[in-house]
Amino acid sequence: NKIFELIIEADEGRKKELSQSQLDKLLSRIVKIHPPAKAKGIKPPYIYKINQLKSNPPLFNVKIGPKDTLHFSYVNFIKNQLKSKFKFYASPINIKIKID
Hints:
It is a single chain. It is elongated, with a radius of gyration of 15 Å. It is an alpha+beta fold. The N and C termini lie far apart (48 Å). A three-stranded mixed sheet has the order 1-2-3. It is built from three helices and three strands. The protein is 42% helix and 20% strand. The protein has helices at residues 2-14, 20-33, 72-86, and strands spanning 47-54, 59-64, 94-99. The longest helix is centred in the C-terminal third of the chain and has 15 residues, at 72-86.
């Protein structure tokens, strides 16, 4: 019985759609916990917004400044925060970096 419950939870997590206000709160929390890490350059990158583009599997868009770069480990940190906060069990989270 536990296996079927886990399968249902994983399926629900995969189809979950988050509101923009939930993502804005998460972004402010993430930046307070751990400021963004730069891949290149002198100044740390600025993250403007996180948007959810689609679900099943979840796809997110992270907007950064035109001269900014985001280190891959920070992208993994964002993925882990999304998984733990919104319970995306056993679901791959894809993140695209968009430069504004």
